[in-house]
């Protein structure tokens, strides 16, 4: 047993040195870094801004999706049973249900402040083919067999939700191929092509979103979702373009980056390669209600939220108070934490799922708002039931 532990430790150290520890969400960006202790402050319903104004029934439907997973956990069973009995009820009745079976806790930053960054994501539509051609020459890849994944959480609980990625080169563990290496040597992943698409920038942003749809020439729509990632950290090309003076900050949105790429085709490959992170996909059933989040349940447009699971438990309802993209108009509604993201790190930090279609793309691309968050926990929960690093203030529970 000691030899096995020693072997696992050596592998871990090798991978930690050669690769990056990253979570396993819809997309992966920066590797996880040590975070200050999260703070959750018990609150009264009257202090949850906008709580009385939300049309709350759609949030119940999203929460019921979470319950397909949460109902297997003892502390969520009663809330899920009662939620199921709320089907078909009006907003006031559903609101009363949440007030009766949950306690709101405001999420605070480590320094005690309330505000954080709220961004958006969506499900894009690309044009593609199952065979390559002069038009369709940018491949989506499935997960290659040589991608090495080591899960040490059973030995090292602090690595829960983390996986180590790399590949073997002889007896040596080395990082998996970067974006630039994959682009420069397609033979490395030959035979793992899932589909081909016609736009390199659209494919790049599909990897950022983590899921999407591809329309084939015969009109067939193929749904694809996140399968895995190469283990390299994400680097924001929007920030890079701003730092290089290529784009002003106010135009560093998804739309602005796409427009820049169209005007600068020669510079584009080098810029894209600065983000070494690379996502692999899998084909999903076309009958799904929405793309899968990290919980493994379909996301609900306008009601699903990606959060840091070290702060907010997956599946929990979260009341979000923010503003509509690029406006001061209030956007206050009950969401459900059903997804994660490599860039979604920190306490008051979330990614708002806008759904599918042009409006969703516009809103997601422009969203970079300030917001506040309250996580709703079942009344049976005690502070010890929050994520291990969490600290609960102002609660006698």
From TrEMBL:
Pfam families reported in the protein's UniProt record: 3D, MltA
Residue ranges constituting the Lytic transglycosylase MltA domain according to the UniProt record: 125-282
EC number(s) recorded for this UniProt protein: 4.2.2.n1
Domain of life: Bacteria
Keywords annotated in UniProt: Cell wall biogenesis/degradation, Lyase
Segments passing through the bilayer: none
Gene Ontology CC terms, in alphabetical order: outer membrane
GO molecular function: hydrolase activity, hydrolyzing O-glycosyl compounds; peptidoglycan lytic transglycosylase activity
Catalytic activity: Exolytic cleavage of the (1->4)-beta-glycosidic linkage between N-acetylmuramic acid (MurNAc) and N-acetylglucosamine (GlcNAc) residues in peptidoglycan, from either the reducing or the non-reducing ends of the peptidoglycan chains, with concomitant formation of a 1,6-anhydrobond in the MurNAc residue
GO biological process, one term: peptidoglycan turnover
The UniProt record lists the keyword Cell wall biogenesis/degradation: yes
Name of the protein: peptidoglycan lytic exotransglycosylase
